[in-house]
Design goal:
It is built from 4 helices and 18 strands. The chain has helices at about 30-35, 75-85, 170-185, 220-235; strands at about 1-10, 10-15, 45-50, 60-65, 70, 95-100, 105-110, 115-120, 140-145, 150-155, 160-165, 195-200, 205-210, 215, 240-245, 250-255, 260-265, 265-275. The protein has an 18-stranded mixed β-sheet that branches. Strand 1 and strand 2 form a beta hairpin.
């Protein structure tokens, strides 16, 4: 029962190849929770289950959050999985495609795995595609009250849903205080990833992240993509943006149709074996 651990700017995942788990169709919610637990398991922000067969791409992938739920897409997860494929010599220098529930992306591994670019797909601001409750519309500069504070937010979908709140100042404490309630707000029928965004200048933004199913997160590729796209749509930044997060920086390029190219690093951390005794623990 092998696993491979990587992080992308402090956002860590375990890659688990189904070929190493012949009796599993996929890990169960209970197995995921204990594997990802920081005290009782290996510890991670999620599990990348692949490669899987795909009719639409060269590789298939499922992404599981540490609470056992499944994510449609993860930018950092896709970079990590691309690095794993490169390290296992399953890919070469040419771009390759990966199918996740949120769509098909194209990835390219460069600098011997130190830099990975992913074509993340097009961002949509349309409520029925994100989804956001209410009539069909572009969700830009709307407001809601959370706890004791009213926020102006915009929403974006890039295969998974995002709520972006632009503020003059942001902090980790802000994300931790309001993120949990925004994630499950009635506006968002599938829950939502939350980003608090500060514009530094036309080419740089800073974000703090509350990730759906994972909590406070040091970095996120899809959050970077959605945040940059919202800031660009609102006229706050240009089409090339560096997104600054507690874990590091990701480069985002925004096409005229809001297709996103994301570039960032990955780091190989460890590999090991899951012991069956692990699963006697309930968390």
């Amino acid at each position: 029962m092998r696993f491979f651990k990587y992080h992308a700017l402090g956002n860590d995942y375990l890659v688990m190849n189904p070929a190493d788990y012949p009796t599993w169709t996929a890990p169960t919610r209970e197995q995921i929770r204990v594997i990802c637990h920081r005290n009782f398991g290996v510890g991670s922000d999620g599990i990348l289950w692949g490669p899987l067969p795909s009719r639409q791409a060269q590789f298939g992938l499922r992404i599981f959050n540490p609470d056992g739920s499944e994510a449609e897409k993860s930018g950092n997860g896709l970079r990590i999985f691309s690095r794993y494929l490169h390290d296992q010599k399953l890919t070469g220098a040419a771009p390759f495609t990966i199918e996740v529930p949120g769509g098909v992306v194209e990835s390219k591994v460069m600098q011997d795995g130190q830099l990975i670019t992913v074509e993340m797909g097009r961002v949509s601001f349309q409520s029925d595609r994100i989804p956001v409750a209410g009539p069909v519309r572009d969700v830009l500069n709307e407001s809601f009250t959370i706890q004791d504070r009213t926020f102006t937010f915009s929403a974006a979908g890039i295969g998974n849903p995002h709520c972006v709140i632009v503020l003059p100042e942001i902090s980790a404490d802000l994300a931790k205080q309001y993120g949990p309630d925004i994630e499950v707000h009635r506006n968002f029928p599938n829950r939502i990833n939350v980003q608090f965004l500060k514009v530094i200048d036309r080419h740089n933004v800073q974000i703090e992240i509350w990730e759906r199913g994972a909590g406070y997160t040091l970095a996120s590729g899809s959050s970077s993509s959605a945040s940059a796209a919202v800031a660009h749509r609102l006229g706050l930044v240009d089409a090339k943006v560096t997104v600054h997060m507690p874990g590091g920086q990701i480069g985002i390029e925004i096409a005229p149709d809001f297709a996103i190219r994301m570039s960032g690093p990955t780091t190989r951390v460890a590999e090991g074996e899951l012991h069956p005794e692990l699963f006697a623990t309930k968390v």
